[in-house]
Amino acid sequence: MAKWSVYADKKLLYANGVQADSGRVLINPLMTEEINSAGSFECGVPNDNILYNKLKLRTTTIEIKNDDKVCWVGRPLSCDIGYNRTMDLTCEGALAFLNDTVYPPDTCKLRLTLFLKKVIDLHNEHCNVNRQIHVGSVTVDDVEIDYNGSYTQTMEVVKDLVSTYGGYLIPHYTEGGCYFDWLKDIPIDAKEIINIEEVVDMSKAISADNVVTCVIPVGKDGLTIGTEYIENEAAAALFGRVWGVVEFGDIEDPDELYRAGLEYLNANLWSSMQLDVEAANVGNKFQIGKMYHAHIPSFNINHDIVATKRAVSLVDGSAQKISFSAATIWTQINNGRDIGDVVDATQHLKLAADRALTTRTAKMESLVKEGSTYFSGQIQFSDGTNLNVTNGMITGGKSAEGDF
User: Rounded to whole angstroms, how far apart are CA atoms 55 and 49?
Assistant: First the structure.
């Protein structure tokens, strides 16, 4: 059984497997981690816990360790004490420390990484050492940005950056402090395979609240593409024409602007999709912010997916629920064709078109066939490129660069 322990200001609050009368017991301790989120920790603290009267809202620092390695840091946010004096405690993760400071009015033009460092450095100057947070790895595109803002909470500044420039915020911790990575892409962990045999519940959720199906990309000095806008015809058939404008202030080439606009359009669609899996026997080895190969026989899933959220019981280390991104799921759940399958198909063609360097002439609807199956056959492009497709999967082709 995994060894889990919880510390409050460096003093042991809980350890799994201890005796009931040890003074180190918590009731239903549950840790939740999530991409782009501070995460949470919830538990009941019996009145005979040795640190019961030492826990202070916002000021106490909570650390959770797995086999002596720090895996979560936060602070108590609220508590509710019942008639038996058990304290129901709710804690927020370290990323929420950014709510403690305000970024002042500022007008500047900087590279994205330099601006992020400026924002975080200012936060760290105005908070206690135990509420500081540091920037780890940043792999999003280091574009030049124009910032013009008034008084704004530091957390909101960071959230706006992620919303605008995409990517994944991944909190992580060491004995030396709290960090977050900002990753553009997540590589697959080929060593681990998620083999979930016992699925309690699963859903494929799609929200159309923020979907854009037609985008107008604008480059440097008002540059536009020849057709002025890009439309994902398959998505528009599903959601209708929903327009949006996105600016790429450092792009001067129309073809590059088109590719950037198309990438934004497809990323926007994927951001609205999520696969939720609730399983009885998942284990603790799968971490958020990593991509794994998932094998879920009962739902006909055998694909690469990103773990975006997990809730872990600290009693035995079992993952009570894991959520995965649907961005790379190419399947038809239970052999049925739903709205997600059509959007999946458009992503296939986008990837193939990028590879063939013929993005501009690709027909997004070409890969989708009326009926219950993906398109199989050959797709021809105006520059002579051919793509071979079998059941919606690109199996090869030929372009000016040769066979692939």
Answer: 11
Are 318 and 282 in contact by the 8 Å Cβ rule? The answer is yes
CB 211 within 8 A of CB 235: yes
Burial of 175 (0-12, 13-18, 19+ CB in 10 A): exposed
Residue 68's pLDDT is what? 86
How crowded is residue 308: how many other Cβ atoms within 10 Å of its Cβ? 23
Locate 81 and state its tokens. Answer: 């004490």
- Of the segments 163-172, 226-235, 298-307, which one has the largest average pLDDT value? 163-172
Say if CB 42 and CB 30 are below 8 A apart: yes
CA-to-CA distance for 375 and 367, rounded, in angstroms? 5
Identify residue 86 by its one-letter amino acid code: T
Q: What is the pTM of this model?
A: 0.63
Question: Is the per-residue pLDDT at 344 higher than 50?
Answer: no
Which tokens sit at 326? Answer: 């649907």
d(CA 278, CA 287): 15
CB-based contact 57:77 (threshold 8 Å): yes
Looking at residue 341, the DSSP 8-state letter turns out to be H
For tokens 């008034």, what's the residue?
Answer: 150
pLDDT tens for residues 75-100?
999 999 988 899 999 999 999 999 99
pLDDT in tens, 167-197: 889 999 987 899 999 998 876 665 556 665 5
Strands 188-195 and 291-296: parallel
* Location of structure tokens 């929200």: 207
DSSP string, 6-60: EEETTEEEEETT--TTSS---EEEEEEEETTS--EEEEEE-TTSTTGGG--TTTS
